[in-house]
Amino acid sequence: MRANDIPSMVLVTKLLLNSGASSMPTNYLLSNPHSLIDDDKNDEIQALRVDDESDIQEERGLTFTFDSVLKHIPWTNAHEAARAAEAARVAEAARVARAAEAAEAARVAEAARVAEAARVAEAARVAEAARVAEVAEIAEAVRVAKATKDADPVRVANAADEVLRQMDISTSKGKKWYNLLRTVEDYKWKKLTVLCYKNITPSNFVMFLVKYGQSEEEINSILASYTSLYRRVYGPRRGTYDSFEYISHVANIVRASEADKAEQRVLVKLGLEKKEVNKWTQLLLTNEVFKWDQLAVLLAEDIYPNDVRKVLWKHQQNRDDINSIVNFYTNLFKDYKADSPEVLMDVTPLQAANAAINVARAQERAIDTLAKKIEQRLGISIRNWLERFRSSDEFKFDELHQLAREKVTSDHIKRFLQYHDMSENEVNVIILLYDGILSHYETGVLSRDKPLFSKEG
Questions:
Q1: Domains of the chain: total
Q2: 68 and 181 fall within a common domain
C-alpha cells in the first residue's frame, strides 16, 4: 500500500466503525464493504469490479484486502494502477491480435507464393514438354525428308522445284535463296510470309530445305519457324483472316516470340538482365576485346549459334557484322563440339573455350589476310567474289587454280569458305576439286611458273 492511499484507508475504516452496520459481524463488513455504500454507488462499483455473476462469485471467495476496495475508488493509486494494468492488458491483446493477423497474412502470402511458383513451374513444364515434342516432330519430318531424298532424289528435287516455281524463283537461284533464308533474319520472315500466303505446306517446304541445306540445325530451325507460322494461320482456329496483311501480322508475332525465347535462354546462361542485352549485342559487334571474351563464355555455356543469331537480329541491323560473327561462332561451335571428351576432361569449360578461341583467332587472321589478297588482286569485295564463286563454275575453276599457284593449303581454303558462310556440302565438293588441282601443281603436272592455261585449253 502506498502512502497516498492512507487517507482513503482511514475513510474506509471510519465508515466501518461509525456506520449503523457496526452491529454486523466484522468479517461480513470486511468481506462486503459495498453494504456501507448506497445502492446506486454500490451498483457502479460492482459494474467496475465484475463483468458477470460468475466473476462476482469468484471474487467473493477471495481474501479481502484494502487494495481490493481502493482500486475501485477514483484518484487512488490503486485505481490508477488497475487502470494501467487494464490498458496494458488491452494493448497486449491488441498486439497479440496484430501479430496473429500479420502471421495469417504472411501464411496466406506464402501459400500464394508457393501456389504461384507451382503454377509457373507447371506452365514451364508444359511449355518445355510442348517444345521438346515440337523439336522431335520437326526432327522427324527432316529425317523422313532426308530418307526420301536418299531413296528417291528425283521426287525431292521435283518437290523443291515446285516450291521455287510457286515463289517465282528460278531453280538456278535455289541455293542462293536458301542461303539468304538461313542467314538474313529479315529476309527469312518476309519469304516465310509469302510461302504461307501461297499455302505451301511445311511437308512440301521441307523438301526444298533438304535439297539445298546440309546442316540439320539450320534446316530444323527454318522448318520450325515456318511450321509455327503455318499452324497459327491455317490451324483449327483459323478464320477468314488469311489475307497477306493478317499473315504478316502473325509472322511478326511468331518471330518476336522466337526471339524472346532465344534471348531469355542467352540471358539466363550469361546472367544478364533484359535491360543489358541491347548494349551487350552492340559491344559484341563493335568491341574486339569484348567479342572474344563473350564468345568464349557463349561457347562454355553451350549456347547454340541459332540463339545468338536471333538475339543479334532482334537488337542490331548490320547484316555483314551479324553474319560475320554468327558464321565465325557457328564454325567455332562445331569444332568445339567435335573435340573428344578426353580433350576437355582436365579443364573447365571456360578454359577449353578460351583455348578454342585462341586457335580460331589465329585462323581468322589468316582468313583476313587471304581475303585482302583476293580483294587487291581482283579489285572487288569478298562478298562479290563469293557470289561469283558460287554462281560461275568458270570463275570458281580459275580462282582455285590461282589459289593453288599461291600455295594456299586445302585446310586454309576450307576454313576460308566456312568462315564466309558456305555449307558443309558445298565446301566438301570444292575441297575435293581443289585437292585434285593442288596435287597437279605439287607433282609437276601443272607449273606455278607458267601462266594459267586458257579456258579453251
A1: 2
A2: no
B/e letters for 358-376, b = 16+ CB within 10 Å, e = fewer, are eebeebbebbeebbeebee
- Its pTM stands at 0.63
The verdict on residue 226 lying in a domain is yes
Domain range for 276 is 133-288
- Quick: pLDDT tens for 149-169: 999 999 999 999 999 999 999
For the stretch 150-157, contacts whose Cβ atoms lie closer than 8 Å and that sit 24 or more positions apart, written own/partner, are 156/207, 156/210, 156/211, 157/211
pLDDT tens per residue across span 177-223: 998 898 889 999 999 999 999 999 999 999 999 999 878 888 999 99
Long-range residue pairs from 143-152, CB within 8 A, at least 24 positions apart, any chain: 145/206, 145/207, 145/209, 145/210, 146/210, 148/207, 149/207, 149/210, 149/211
Pick the last residue of a domain from 258, 273, 288.
288
Longest CA pairwise span in the chain (Å): 154
